[in-house]
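DEPOSITED CHAIN:
***
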Amino acid sequence: MPSKPMRETGGDEPRERMPEVVPDPDPWGVKRAENLIAGLTGVLSASIVVTPQGEISEIHVLAQTEIPPKQVVRNIESALMAQLGVRIDHRKISVAQTADVRPIEALQEEAISSRAKKRVVLFRGLTVRPSERLQRVVVRVKLVFGDREAENETEGTDTARNRVETAARAAAACLDELMPDNSIALEGAAIVNAFDREFVFVAVHGLGGREAQLLTGSCEIRESAERSAVLAVLDATNRWADARR
């Protein structure tokens, strides 16, 4: 039986191209969840905040006044569970209501501003300047808690890692001053690379009465690592501080 002629393959023959991998623009499904919530009766808009690990940390909703806030929260919990299989703690859902008929974008900005004013501790200022000692810097942080204000200056070595830790230590010292019935101390701060971005990750010890907790927080580095360090400390402690007001 004659054999079939073999096909010669040359180096110039076109090779089969592998399909390009297109990155998922919404790896955590945040937009899908936001669209689901925004489609619920009475909801005007929704914004979801996630941790670097993709866990939902906050849900902010702007809704009309026709439906009670508790019902809006229950509707969101049910929709996320039924449609996406996501179980969410109702305490992570913040509902702002309005009877206004202005554009949603304007209402959203007002709701976010209102939410920010209700935060336990507010960030009011940060300065970083060279120290009188060589290769050292001084970081000054100002925080506000209710009608009280605290400011702290901390000096540290002028390296990227130590500048972050110095800013976090100054923020923790301000919190310790603002909450005299509790004690707050920085365990550590570090710059972490994740998802092609840089974050500041902090661990803070919170002591209230006989109860001691290790609190953690994070913040993406955008303006400066020192600013993100302060915000990461607030991220770690705001819920803890709110429970002790």
Remarks:
- The chain has a mean pLDDT of 80.
- The helical segments are 30-38, 69-84, 104-117, 160-178, 225-242.
